[in-house]
Amino acid sequence: MSGQRSAVESGPREKSSRPLVVLLLVIIVALITAVTVQTALTPAPGAAGRAELRDGVRAALQADDESGFKRLFDDDTAGDDYAADYLRSWQQRGVDRVVVDTVGDALVARGYRGGHQTACSAWPVFEDGSRWLLKGTPATDPGLCR
User: Fold this and answer.
1) What DSSP assignment string belongs to 40-101?
2) Does residue 118 form part of some domain?
3) Does the global pTM surpass 0.90?
């Protein structure tokens, strides 16, 4: 038996699953990175302070900025179409100048056309953690828009 060689037969080599696992890990890391970056780049709702909230409302109304306007409202009180519907109503009134003031616990936005007030809305302002937001429900003081 000293002259005998033992031959191990081997069939066709099986492909390694290692490249597939590496590819799957790369895809998972890429997805996690994309979600993290998207979250970091999405502006926080509301504003850092009352003055920033007032200025944000004024800027959004003047520029017809639906997404900028929407992010200033509490999601629980303003539906998905609230900002678009509201901006459309101001466009229909032909507003060419916007004045926004803080009055007590409310923010009052007045729209003018040719020097005459054509639109007015007042929203309650509240603090949620470190951010200031508007409630989509009207302020309770009816005298705010006089």
Assistant:
1) HHSPPSSBSSHHHHHHHHHHHHHHT-HHHHHTTB-TTTS-TTHHHHHHHHHHHTT--EEEEE
2) yes
3) no
Per-residue pLDDT 10s for the chain (146 aa) are 555 555 555 556 666 788 888 888 899 998 888 887 776 766 677 899 999 999 999 999 999 999 999 999 998 899 889 999 999 999 999 999 999 999 999 999 999 999 899 999 999 999 998 899 999 988 888 788 87
Q: Tokens standing for 36?
A: 């993290």
Q: Kindly state whether residue 1 falls inside one of the protein's structural domains.
A: no
Secondary structure element (H or E) that encloses residue 20, with its range: helix 18-41
As for how many domains the chain has, the answer is: 1
Please give the residue range of the domain that contains residue 65.
Answer: 50-140
Q: Are 81 and 97 in contact (CB under 8 A)?
A: no
HSE of 29, CA atoms in CB hemisphere, 13 A: 6
| Structure tokens given for 126 | 């509240």
Which tokens go with 91?
């466009």
Taking alpha carbons only, the member of 122, 98, 104 closest to residue 50 is 104
